[in-house]
Amino acid sequence: MDLRPIHQNVDIVKYDVVACPNCGYAVLSRYFAPLTSMQIKKIKESISKNYKKQEEKRKVYSYDEAIERGKLALLSSVIKGTKDSEKAYVCLKTAWLYRGKAEHLPETEKEEILRCQKEEEAFLHKAYDGLVSARQKELFPICGMDELTFDYLLAALAHRLGNLEVSAKLVGEI
What we know:
6 helices; globular
């Protein structure tokens, strides 16, 4: 309902973050663009100095690796000072990763499934709040979405988070 892409045999959301294994900078592929000198300085000061170089061994990511990359992309977007929409979209993608992980865990791992669901909900809240803020401050397209698609996504997230009045109002406007 929240526009998460679902494909057979592969969760493409796991591969949406581009990350430098040397400096720790990470970004969603849709937002990959040259950095300003100030952004590079901030990344070096805040991420690179504490980042342990990663060796790229595999072409298939586990959910844990993908979640780690998503969190690194969120940290990078905060440090770069990106728009609310970009940070929110990273949160949404990270929530989808937690959902995917929970879906692929055996039913016997109830505690881990519950932990993933709690993390998913926390990231959905951050995504929703950021998208609401973006709706008020930014011009369309936002996150590559037109106004109707964006409002639908907001309605779906509001519904998922239990804010039925807001969801109904947004659907009514669509």
